[in-house]
Amino acid sequence: MNPQLIAVVIRRLGLGLAVAALALLTLASPAMAAPTASSSAVEVLKGTVRPLAHSARGRAAVVATGSRRTLTLRNFSIDPGPRVRVWLVPRRASGDGRFARDHIDIGRLKGSSGNQSYTIPSRVDLRRYSSVIFWCVPFTQGLARADLSRS
Description:
Layout: H1 3-27, E1 42-51, E2 56-65, E3 68-78, E4 84-89, H2 96-101, E5 104-108, E6 116-120, E7 131-136, E8 141-147, E9 149-150
Antiparallel strand pairs: 1-2, 1-8, 1-9, 2-3, 3-6, 4-5, 4-7, 7-8
């Protein structure tokens, strides 16, 4: 930091306030700048949630941050159901029987509305598993779906 600037700050504010002001200036220094592009989040897939057996709406997206991938749901809502799971399925999969045989379970539905996120395991090939199904376990039925495509 510039010594002349420090002297001016001390003269104008007094020692106590100068220390506080310099601490704030230090926090705002370029070393504390936002993360670099290599660590920032990038949306790689996106789609719209649409109803199957239940009313549903919202936006689904896969966001990559470094090697980590996350499914995000925004402005999401779905009619509640018992034991609903979030599955990744092949885009071509249709019908409840296909979903049940070929899916990647990424967790239980966290709630019937609101923004949510789910970690996608690194082993999952998103070129193959590019649709999201909200699956009701007791009724073996897809409640809603989002087909994802490149952002």
